[in-house]
Amino acid sequence: MLFNSLTFLWFFIIVYSLYLVIEHRGQNKMLVVASCIFYGAWDWRFLGLMFVSITTDYLCSKFIYASNDKKVRKRFLFLSLFVNLFILGFFKYFNFFSANLKLLLGNLGFNVNIGILNVILPIGVSFYTFEAMSYIMDIYRNELKPAKNYWDYVLFVTYFPHLIAGPIMRAKDFLPQIENPRKLSMGQFYEGCHLILWGLFQKIFVADNLARIADPVFSSAPPYDGIRVLIAVYAFAFQIYCDFAGYSNIARGLGKCMGFDIMVNFNLPYFATNPKEFWQRWHISLSRWLRNYLYIPLGGNKSGTIMTYRNLALTMVIGGLWHGAAWTFVAWGIYQGLLLVVHRLCEPFLKKIPTPRNPVIQNIWFAVRVFFFFNLVCIGWLLFRAQSLTQAWQMFQSLFSGLQYIPVNEVSAMAINFLFFVWLLVVVQMVQFWKNNLLAVHESWPIAKYAFYYVCINLMVIYGVTSAQPFIYFQF
Fold this sequence. Notes:
Blueprint: H1 6-21, H2 24-40, H3 45-66, H4 70-107, H5 125-140, H6 150-158, H7 160-163, H8 171-179, H9 186-218, H10 226-257, H11 275-281, H12 284-298, H13 305-323, H14 327-350, H15 359-385, H16 389-401, H17 408-435, H18 446-463
């Protein structure tokens, strides 16, 4: 069931109508049922798999919290982590590792027949697994008490707005909102409607149209033309951002309408000037998860310079592999780790560069840094989107050596289409950045706000992709 479909519209109207007329405990039970229907609409078989994870974590959390014996606590922690990682690894990584193991053994002279599983990846498994793991680890660390009610914990994991593609919520932030009665207000409702509309615009008008520019290039065979590749990479950079941020905004908006506060997952990431800042703005919930449950447990920056670089690199490689079972994602993680390490090495020298005193020159210097780092990010997106490492390398080479002549009208059409589908997004984000407020449009003058809504709706109706397209992160 897709947010950008009529089926979901009717689903939410029914759920929200019931939500408004029943009391708190009834709301929670109804939302559990609604979330199961929402998830089961994809494939009912995987509901049981999710409940295996949920029930294991709930019971293990009780045993961990009740025991003062470190061995007992560790035993139940490892049991919970094993179940979650086994489910994730079996469905997401078994074929990847078995295929590569078979290739490795074949190169060593061993002809081993390792089977491939013909199974589909349960949607949302990467997201709800990470949520469940954060819950059990927070209890083990004595940072959180277990959920008092089993169905409250079920709702924490399955709450349908953020179930499939996040944000990855921590129990200490979201569970109290489930356990305690929510207060609804018209202010929250209007803010929620704004986020839903903006998220739909990002998905239907921007992301899905940019996919029509990027996909044909990445689906084509070599040789590649550098200009086409450049436009396709830029298109994918905005496509993946609007696709994922659009989902997050819709999830936040749906939550706002029901009195829930779901965290901001994207905060103008393409205004970052370095990799550290980028990961504070892009997929914030995953960045925090990797920091809290991987980077810091590995030692963080407490064990010397070399170990800090190792921890940064290893964290990003695992973060890359989390996105998908392919070497392109591993390479993307390695690249992101290298960016962080190089920036950390250069940071002392970068701080010595004097800031221009003239405001105009300051803004120009900032724009230059933003544009430079955006292109570094786009190199990563080339790795991320490519169908293989070979294709990624061939496309990267074409950016420098494949600039042969192609019909001007063809390139102009690609460039004009790209600019047409991103111009309003860029303008809005510049206003949001200038005012340091993601709700700048919502909080603007009524005439400007409603004129903006009118433009967005018309652009979606006239130029939007009307057939409901899946969100990119559903496959992760």
